[in-house]
Design goal:
Low-confidence stretches: none
Number of strands: 8
Oligomer: single chain
CATH architecture: Alpha-Beta Barrel
Radius of gyration: 18 Å
Length: about 270
């Protein structure tokens, strides 16, 4: 009935507990889970998990926070992961300036700061090109990097589709994404009392333009806030958004599940 479009089942927080986590998700009405990778190693683990469970699919991609530790010749290895039949998207990829948002005053430190941003952009574009080649849509990570993320992504509108995961922007920003043919997804943040912007977006965006996700093990919804999150909590997120929209849980599940199914699949066979 529901799809968790962004989980990290390969993370150490789940360790050997994945079978129980998947079972609890199914018991809560979560019929499909996309386990998202962040590094080459994470991608390999995600694929192995997807092979074990019929209702789990995987992504492959290099998270922007890990580009510094990723070798320059990563692309053939990433492609080898991305062509696996368990992989239904490239991601999470994108730009993240959260830990280095203000340029340093020292010239040497500023050069390093600029190089890190350039490397993120370089990896982002290379992975977008790979996604186009393979007929995969992309899962975008954007944090404190709105303008640069859109600048790089805009030329790919019409060539692929992108979902801005863990969306926390304004309604105007959400519409900017939708106008490019892209989508957004909401996490447990939508259940937080102080997340008024996310509440507005979840209430007003058209059906089919957004997905549900947990981003587990992070961002557990109320009443589990501050604890480890897991895919079963997709239902709590769905119930909250349904209430915001004046829909039944069944109505919300139907259009978010259909949108996720259409997004997380290959456009063409991999040669």
């Amino acid at each position: 009935m529901l799809t968790d479009t962004h989980a990290h089942l390969d993370f150490p927080e789940f360790a050997s507990e994945v079978p129980n986590v998947v079972t609890r998700a199914q018991e809560s009405g979560v019929s499909r889970i996309i386990t998202i990778s962040t590094t080459l190693e994470s991608g390999a683990r995600a694929i192995q998990i997807a092979k074990q469970f019929e209702n789990v699919a995987a992504s492959a991609g290099i998270h922007p926070c890990y580009v510094d530790e990723t070798p320059d010749d990563y692309l053939p290895k990433l492609r080898a992961l991305a062509i696996q039949p368990e992989v239904v998207a490239l991601g999470e990829i994108g730009m993240d300036y959260y830990r280095a948002n203000t340029p340093p005053e020292d010239p040497a430190e500023r050069l390093s700061w600029e190089n890190k941003r350039q490397r993120q952009g370089h990896f982002f574009k290379e992975q977008l090109d790979l996604a186009v080649q393979l007929g995969l849509n992309v899962v975008v990570h954007q944090r404190d990097s709105w303008e640069d993320t859109l600048r790089i992504l805009r030329p790919y509108s019409g060539m692929l589709r992108a979902v801005f995961h863990c969306f926390g922007g304004t309604l105007a920003q959400a519409h900017e994404i939708l106008e490019l043919g892209f989508q957004v997804s909401f996490t447990g943040i939508v259940t937080f009392k102080n997340a008024s912007s996310v509440h507005e977006c979840a209430a007003k965006l058209p059906s089919g333009s957004f997905f549900l996700e947990t981003d587990c093990p992070f961002l557990a919804p109320v009443p589990h806030r501050g604890k480890r999150c897991e895919p079963a909590y997709t239902r709590l997120i769905a119930e909250h958004i349904a209430a915001l929209r004046g829909e039944t849980l069944e109505q919300l599940a139907a259009h978010t599940n259909q949108a996720a199914t259409e997004f997380f699949q290959r456009k063409k066979p991999v040669e």
